[in-house]
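User: Predict the structure for this protein chain, please.
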Amino acid sequence: MKKAVVFVVMVLISAWSSLAFAGEGKMIGTVAAIKMQGNVAEMTLKDRKTDSMVVLQVRDASTLEKMKDNKIKVGDELRIRFDDGSKVIKKVQKTAGC
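Assistant: Here is the predicted structure, written as structure tokens:
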């Protein structure tokens, strides 16, 4: 009986954890275009794996500041995490080292 309860609990936990991370997308891509619109920016990236163009929105202040200071510019290769539904960037990191 204990084994059945443990098995059911493990199945429920694994099903819940997969649903919690279902809305996050990850990609590595090269910046093709940046369009600033006030306190929101649209960044077009070329996906490294599929060679398709993906348009994502940038809303957080720190990433917008990096774009204004040209720390993130066209031609940079970035590692990005974003929300699949709204296409809003959560985290940006350059792939180049030091």
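The beta strands are 24-37, 40-47, 53-58, 77-83, 89-94.
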